[in-house]
Amino acid sequence: MANYAKWDKFAADLSDDDADADVAQSTDNSDSDAYGGMPLDDMGHPKLTKPAGKPKFIKLASADDGSGLDPVYFTDPNEFVVADVVSSDLGGWGVPCGDIMSGMMRQMKMQFMYFSGDLKQPQEQFCSVLRARWLKKLEQEKATAAFQERSKCDVLLKITLLDEEKIADFQVFRRVRCSGSLTLRAFADKIVLPLMGWIRNYHMWYFMARNYEGAWAVPTESNAVDRMHLDNHGYCPIDDTKLRICDFLRKEGDDVFFLYDIGDSWRHSITLEKIYPLSESTGKAEVVAGAGACPPEDSNGLTGKGNHSFFEDVMKKRVKKNEASQALNYRNKGRFSAREFDLDDARKAVADAIASPASVVSGSKEFMMPLFGADDPLAGLYPPKRGIKQTAVPADVGVLRESLRTGDVAEPKRMGACVVCGSPLNAKLCSGCKLVRYCGRDCQTKHWPSHKVACKAAAAGSSKSTSA
After folding, report:
1. 36-50, 263-277, 305-319: lowest mean pLDDT where?
2. Which end of the chain, N or C, is less packed with Cβ atoms under 10 Å?
3. Is the distance from CB of 459 to CB of 433 less than 8 angstroms?
4. Does 15 reside within a domain?
5. Domain containing 157 — which CATH number?
6. 214 and 128 in one domain?
7. pLDDT tens-digit profile of 186-219?
C-alpha cells in the first residue's frame, strides 16, 4: 500500500504561525520542502526521475519519456517475480507503489496523453499482464476437486486492526466464522465493516492477497470520495464481486491485507485460522469473539489519521472523546471508549447487515451542500435505476446523500446470501416475492413471521403487473 506517513507529518508540522514563512519559502526554487523534499527543476516544479535504459515491454506516448515511473515498469512483466509474501508497503500485484508525490506530479503532467486512443497508461500495460497471469492460475486451481470441495467449507477468520509498531497494550480484533464461498464484496459489506464497527457504503476499501502474488480486489464501481487515491496503491484490480474468500485465503495461516478508507488508511489483516471439514460446515456467519473498539470514522477526535495515530493517541490519552463520539460510527451510540467491545452488539450489527439489502457502492454516502432550502436539489438530476432510491439526511453541515436499494428488486446474485444466516450456499429466491434469498427451508420458516406481509404484498403487486 502507499505510505502517506511523511506527508501526514509534513502537513501536521505546518502551523498557522509558520504560514507566512512557508509561503515565502515556496517561492525559492532551491527549497523543496513544499514538495516533501523532492528536488526541483529550474522552474521550481518537482523534478521527476527517469528510469535508466529503455522499457522492455510497455509502450510510452511520444511525449512521455517515463519520468516519474518506478524502474520496475521498464522491466518485462512476464519475467516479474512476486515475493512469496507480499508486504503491505507494496501495491497491487506486488509492484512497488513508488513515491506518492512523484506519482501525483506524473499524473498531472501525463494524464491527457493516455486518456484517448488505444494506448493505456504504462502502469496498466504492465499490471494487466500480472493480472491475466494470476487469473489463469486461479482458473486452473478452481478446476481441481480439492479446490471445489474447500470452497464449500466454513472458515474461521481473525480480522485485526494492525499495530505494526507495537504501540498499544491492547488489540482491536474480531473473530468470525463464515462460508469461504462468500464473494469479497458481500464479505466486506455484510461482515467485515459492520463487525469492525465501520459505516457501510461510506469509504473505499480493497483486499490484497499477501500469499498469492499480491492479487487485489476493489469495488470497481464505487464512487466513494477517497477513490481518487486508488492509483497510489496499484493498477488493474479485480472486481471484488468476482472473487470469493476461498480464492484469496486457501490454506490455514494465509493472510489478506484489507485497507478501509484510502484517505485515512485504516490497515487490517485478515488471517485464515481454520478450515472446517465439509461435514461440519453450515455456511452460517457467526461472530465468535473480539476485543477493542473500532476507531472513529474520519479519524474524528484524533491528532492525525490512521492506525499509528489511533493507537498512539489512545496510549497517550490524547483522544478528544467528545469529537470521537460524534463520528458517524459512534453518533447516538454513547461515548467513545477505545478498549471496549460488546459481543452482542457486534453480532447484532452483522445480523442486521445480512438481513438488509446490499450496499449500492456506486451511490456511496457523500456530504453535499444543497443549493435551495433544506432538501437535496441534486437528487433528481441523475435518476437511479429501478430498485434504487436516493436519500438525503440532514447533517451538521449540508446533507448526507446515499443511494439505497428499495427492496422491490432482488439484490444481485453475486451479493446473494441467506437473509437469516448469511450462507451463500444454495441461496435461492423466495418463491413468493422473489426478492430475498434463503439457504433452506429452516431459515425460510424462521423468517416467515417477519417476512410474510411484505412477501404477500410483493407477490400481489407482481401478479397485477403481469396481468396488466
Report:
1. 36-50
2. C
3. yes
4. yes
5. 3.10.290.30
6. no
7. 999 999 999 999 999 999 999 999 888 999 999 9
In eight-state DSSP terms, residue 40 is B
| In contact, 173 and 161? CB cutoff 8 Å | yes
Contact 315, 292 (CB under 8 A): no
Residue 128 and residue 21 share a domain:
yes
- For residue 22, what pLDDT is reported? 38
Average of per-residue pLDDT values in the chain: 86
Determine contact, residues 208/193, Cβ cutoff 8 Å.
no
HEC per residue, 190-248: HHHHHHHCCCCCCCCEEEEECCCCCCEEECCCCCCHHHHHHHHHCCCCEECCCCEHHHH
What is the number of structural domains in the chain? 4
CA distances from 350 to 92, 189, 197, 208, 354 (A): 29, 10, 10, 23, 6
Other CB atoms closer than 10 Å to residue 287's CB: what's the count? 22
**What letter does residue 354 receive in the DSSP assignment?**
H
Helix (H, G, I), strand (E, B) or coil at 304: coil
All three cell numbers of 102, joined, read: 512523484
Q: Which of 154-158, 314-318, 392-396 has the lowest mean pLDDT?
A: 392-396
Q: How many residues are present in the chain?
A: 468
* HEC letters along 131-186: HHHHHHHHHHHHCCHHHHHHCCCEEEEEEEECCCCCCCCCCCEEEEEEECCCEHHH
pLDDT grade for 139, boundaries at 50, 70 and 90: very high
CB-CB contact of 241 with 185 (8 Å) = yes
Of residues 89 and 175, which shows the higher confidence score? Answer: 175
- Give the domain-ending residue among 142, 161, 192: 142
Range of the domain at 391: 358-406
Residue with cell 484490480: 237
Last residue of a domain, one of 312, 335, 353: 353
**Euclidean distance between CA atoms 130 and 134, whole angstroms:** 6
One domain for residues 208 and 333: yes
Query: Side chain identity at 178, as an amino acid letter?
Result: C
Answer yes or no: do 297 and 340 share one domain. Answer: yes
Indicate whether 432 and 398 sit together in one domain: no
User: Dihedral, CA atoms, 229, 235, 236, 240, nearest 10 degrees?
Assistant: -40
